[in-house]
Amino acid sequence: MPAAVLVVVVGLIALAATSGGAELAPAATSTAGPDAGTAAEPSLARRASGDPLALGEVDAPVVMVMWSDFQCPFCGRFARETEPALVTRYVDAGVLRIEWRDFPYIGPESLPAAVAGRAAAAQGKFWEFGEAVYGQERRPRSDDFDAAHLRLYAEQAGLDLAEYDAAVAGQIGLDQVQADLAEATELGVTGTPAFLVNGSPIIGAQPLDVFVAVIEQAAAQAGQPVG
């Protein structure tokens, strides 16, 4: 993360299984360059056109940055129970953009899983790959995330497997994964899932109504209230 563009102090995000995932300290401040967005939205939002790891319009008033690990069971809970409702209610309406960040920290299988996700992204099927991985609860640090299972999820997501195999073998996307990891570490992220909604933190895989409240408040502050 170039210092000339953004220095953000988000606070400590610590893994807390009893609270459903990550904990995020409430402090969130920024010092940003001229292209960093509004004061309410630190430029952790990349807003890159055509980003395969993002859902929603580039100019959506609300951006939710999410740090995830494919092995994380709480990330899976969010993907199954909350994300679809947010997509239907806010992403499809042009209110919300969701931007994924890799934070592969749970175990040695996390990094290959993240690289597999980038191989899916190269074919424009990152979110389909996520649906295959998170479609049911899987066991972290298990053979659910070995190379054979990751390839199975790629097949379920409709990927061209020859292209997938070549991308994985070539470690395509590894640099981007490591860049996400370095940025998150700089910010104090130590657990998943963790979210920033226009700079406001959400702790772990909270119920839908928590996300609704924060997103709608952020939309109102951006001058585009929902409803």
Strand order of the largest sheet: 5-7-6-8-9
Structural class: alpha+beta
Instruction: Determine Rg (CA atoms, Å).
Output: 17 Å
Strand content range: 15-25%
The CATH superfamily is known as Glutaredoxin
Looking at how many chains there are and whether they match, the oligomeric state comes to: single chain
Number of E strands: 9
Mean pLDDT metric: 85
How many domains? The number is 1
Intertermini distance: 36 Å
- Helix content class: 25-40%
Please name the CATH architecture. Answer: 3-Layer(aba) Sandwich
If you consult CATH, what is the topology? Glutaredoxin
CATH uppermost class: Alpha Beta
Total of helices: 8
What is the succession of H and E elements?
EEEEEEHHEHHHHHEEH
Molecular structure report:
This protein has eight helices and nine strands. Helix 1 (73-81) packs across helix 4 (126-134), helix 3 (110-122) crosses helix 4 and helix 3 (110-122) crosses helix 6. With 227 residues, the chain is an alpha+beta fold. The chain has one domain (6-26, 54-221): Glutaredoxin (3-Layer(aba) Sandwich). It has helices spanning 73-81, 83-91, 110-122, 126-134, 147-156, 161-169, 174-187, 208-221, and strands at residues 6-9, 13-16, 21-24, 29-32, 54-55, 62-68, 96-102, 194-197, 200-203. The chain is 38% helix and 18% strand. Strand 2 and strand 3 (21-24) form a beta hairpin. The termini are far apart.
